[in-house]
Amino acid sequence: MTSILARTGVALAIAGLAALSPTVAHADVSVQETQAFTGSSYEQSSGKAKREAENQARRHALLSGYNNDQCVLLYSYSDGAGFGWWYGYAGIRCTR
Question: How far lies 72's CA from each of 1, 79, 81, in Å?
């Protein structure tokens, strides 16, 4: 249980750093809003766990008013939980 909390903490820290990363400046000096979202899941296969985690992060972004084309996948990984189950983690950064 402690390792799960540690992994979740690392995932949130990475998402926090991604939110603080600089955005590309444009010639018209427009202000861009950037926000990071994370997702996690618990599934019976590694691939499904990663997909569901990414989908969860994208749903969070959608609820915050971002479109899928405004978001970039930062990371997606899975970790075995034992007995054929997998934890999935994903992080995205959205800019508008």
Answer: 30, 22, 27
What is the pLDDT confidence band of residue 31, given thresholds at 50, 70 and 90?
A: confident
Q: What's the whole-model pTM score?
A: 0.69
DSSP 61-83: HHHTT--GGGEEEEEEEEEEEET
Helix (H, G, I), strand (E, B) or coil at 27: coil
Report how far residue 76's alpha carbon sits from residue 50's, in angstroms, rounded to the nearest whole number: 6
- Tell me the torsion sign for CA atoms 60, 65, 68, 71: negative
The answer to whether 93 and 76 are in contact (CB under 8 A) is: no
